[in-house]
Design a protein that fits this description.
Layout lengths: L1 H20 L4 H79 L5 H63 L3 H14 L4 H13 L3 H14 L4 H14 L2 H14 L20 H7 L1
Length: 285
Amino acid sequence: MFSRIIAILLLVISTNVIAADQQPEKEQVVKTNATSAQYPPLIERYILDELKSIRQDQQAFRAEVENKVANARLDVSDRAIRYTTDTLNNVFIIITTAASLLVLMGWRSLRDVRSKLNEVVEIKITELTSKYEERLKDLEDKLKRRSQEIIEAQEDISKANEIHSIWMRAGLETNMHQKIKLYDELLAINPTDIEALIYKADAAFELGEYEWAFSLANRAIDQDEDHGLAYWQRACANAANGAVQDAISDIKIAVDKAPKLAEEIEREPAFEPLHELEEFKELLA
């Protein structure tokens, strides 16, 4: 429609431009004026026809839109009615089916239904209660075990801190008697502490208590036969007691259990009585 109006305007403008550009002679001017006088009615008529056509198109478009809207509303109403009908039919089917089931199951009245329902509910509640009681009991047991583990871990941490503190004090202590007391504290906390036994044996050896050192080394070996330092300490006690063959035998076992001890054989003061023995020299080779 708008394209037609634009075409009309362009036609009018082009006519005027052509009339203005022409430079006819006087006779031609007169003829042109006479001809131009005839154009306005024709153009007006053309414009009126186009406007009428546009109005008719608008009316047809409006009628088409109204028709589509009416059809859409009718379709929606039809769907709503069909949905309502289907819903009601389904409800009646469900009611009929439920009633049929009640008849088949022998429930003649709502009282029977209610009693049966109460019975089912009680059974379900009992089952759920038992299940949750078992879960709570398991949870309680787990919490107890976890609490016990936490307490034991705290005790172990406390014990480890105490043992570490005692070892630090023993490392700084220069008095052998005080060192032995500290090692006794360690053994009181952990009687199977082999390191404490060996260091206590070394302290006893430093005090000249060779038999005591020998006994402590034997205790350490009894607890762990693969501990090389325990044989080393017993070898020191045997060398001091004059049991040179036993000392050399213990040195061999100690080096076999802990090869790094071979570097300390020559520097160990306790083995000075053994330096002249051929077997000891073989150990150094």
